[in-house]
Amino acid sequence: MLSWLAVCCSGLLHINAAYKGPRWQFYLFKPLTILLMMLIALVGGEANVYTYLILVGLLFSLFGDVFLMLPKDRFIPGLLSFLIAHILYSVAFWQQFDGPMIWWLPSLIGAASVIVFLLLLPNLGPLLIPVGIYIAVIAQMAWGAGEFWMNAHSQTAAYAFGGALLFMVSDTVLAFERFKGPFRASVLLVMSTYFCAQGLITLSVMP
């Protein structure tokens, strides 16, 4: 419980610093929040392939966080880091799936992803292909987590699916902020859903 309290405090300090400063607090607490989740998964998670995939996914998320918050923006390396994280999460979720496919689920997720892509399309420019690939990867990650939950109906699967859906929300808001223009509540929306997504995915490794 105290470890999760530390995660919450760290995340809130980062969000607060994004609006009010100081800058050192902004740079420190974003990666620290993910690092704390990695430690929770490492200490409390089961020693299996699923946990290891989630841990490495968190590590690449940490790399992505650092790239995206650097004063000199490293958007492409950040995008690539999160792309790898989503692929690792996807492998973890699909490995847990064992049962009949629920075909309406990818239809809903795919339709939502296409709508987001079309709304962003006029502003993507040379990033059209990388962003399109990223949207496709995160959509199939959510699909994998959803199939896992629809078949297992376990708490672990519920955490995984909830985390994947929140990740989609976070990345969608981030994409609109970057390509359509910033708005005051964007940091709060992006980071609160992002930290909750990573927290739920971390919880999915707990026995």
TrEMBL record:
Q: Which domain of life is it from?
A: Bacteria
Q: Which InterPro entries match?
A: TMEM86B-like
Indicate the family of this protein: Belongs to the TMEM86 family.
Q: What is its main location?
A: membrane
Provide the coiled-coil residue spans.
none
Where exactly are the transmembrane stretches of this chain? Answer: 33-63, 75-95, 101-120, 127-145, 157-176, 188-206
Q: Which UniProt keywords apply?
A: Membrane, Transmembrane, Transmembrane helix
> Could you tell me what this protein is called?
Lysoplasmalogenase
